[in-house]
Each structure stands twice: as C-alpha cells, then as structure tokens.
Amino acid sequence: MTFVQLIDCRTSRLDEMNRLIDQWVEQTKGKRTATHAVIGTDRSDAAHVVEIVEFPSYDEAMRNSKLPETDRIFREMAALCEGTPTFTDLDVVRDEPLEAAAARRFFETIAVRGPLPPLNGLLAENYHHHDPGEEQDALGLDNMRREIEMWRGAFDFTFSVEDQLTQGDRVCTRWTWNGVQRGEFLGLPNTGREVSMTGTTVFRFDGTGRIREGWWQYDRLGLMEQLGALDALEN
Fold first, then answer.
1. Order of strands across the sheet that contains 138-139
2. How many CB atoms are closer than 10 A to CB 73?
3. pTM for the complete prediction?
4. 151 Cβ partners below 8 Å, 6+ apart?
5. pLDDT tens-digit profile of 144-156?
6. Whole-angstrom Cα distance, residue 124 to residue 142?
7. What is the C-alpha separation between 120 and 115, in angstroms, rounded?
C-alpha cells in the first residue's frame, strides 16, 4: 500500500531548506526509497511549510529514514525550523490521477457503437489535433469530430490502454487499436479484414479537466499494409 508522510513545520529559511533537500537527493542516489516529494507554503502564512513525501509502502519509508544521509539532513533541516517539525503518517486508500482517467475515457468513448457521443465534456472547443498522417492539424472540436467519424465510418474498433504516464498537465497513453474494416478508408474499398496497430498519444489538458491539445503517433503504414494498400507497390 502506498504510504505518504506529511512533515509540517515553520521556517523563514525556505531557500536553505531547499538546498538541503537538493543535497539529500544527490547523496541518496540509488539508495532512497521515496518516489515523490512536494513542498508547499501556506498562502496565508508564508512561514508555514508542509512537505509531502510518497513511498511505495510504510516499510520502504522506514528503510529510507534509516539512511545516514536522511538522518543528517533531517537534523540540519530541523535546525532551520521554529520549533520541532511534526509528522503525519498516511496509508493511501485512494489515488486517482483524474486527467489520466479522462484520457482513458476518451479512448473508450470514441470506440462505442452507435452514434458518436458528445465530446464537449472531454475536448475543449479550441482543441488542437496533431497527426503526422494529415497535411494540416485539425483545429476545433467540430473538426476533431469529423476526423473521428471518418475512422468510425471505416472501422468497428476498440482501444486497449497499455500504459499511461502523467506529468504536469500532460498524459501520455500507449495503446493498441484493433478493428474490422466496414467501409472505405482513404480511398481503399472495404476489405472486411481484421487489423491492428499500436500507437502513443500525448494529451495536454486545460484548467477545466478537458483535453486542449493532442499529439498522435501510430503505425499507419502497417495498417495500410494490412489493408492491402502496398500490394500493388510490391508487384
């Protein structure tokens, strides 16, 4: 179970504290078990500082605390504080990256059978679509809907999300697409073939939780080969 430790203190020497943390990060390479650290200051009281440190488990946190570098840096940090820092130990019972969930929901939504559901809850009105297979980027929600409808008109398909990585306002999703051709696609007549391809999409989210921009990379050449588009070139 993921474990989080909150360290609450008061200090007017935040710059020195940051330098100590930088030293600890450098000196514990290959040994520390902490996976994520955040430091925040109270907007109503700048001297009130909270550090949030995440570990894979409580046992890993205890192992991290026994490092000599951790002990030394903590004693030096405590000397920068007004009073003794307090600790709150938390077992994480829910950890939901909301933007990653929204990205996953997008792939599920565009693959549903029947009429395409509204996308305005997922995509911003000024969505910017980057696709190396297209001569021009698609700008705006309506243009993106037309792009999606083109694929839906040619294939019955599903997405399988293989991996997701989140950083800041961006979510990277590695996916596998499986489809059956049901109509014309880029001038190719319906073959009825089962096809598949892999790809990666990076979405940038706006401040409202909707997707503002997307960069797509996928094996369109492999898809065209599966549909027989390259047969004439090989003969």
1. 138-139, 123-130, 211-218, 194-205, 170-181, 155-167
2. 19
3. 0.74
4. 110, 157
5. 999 999 999 999 9
6. 10
7. 15
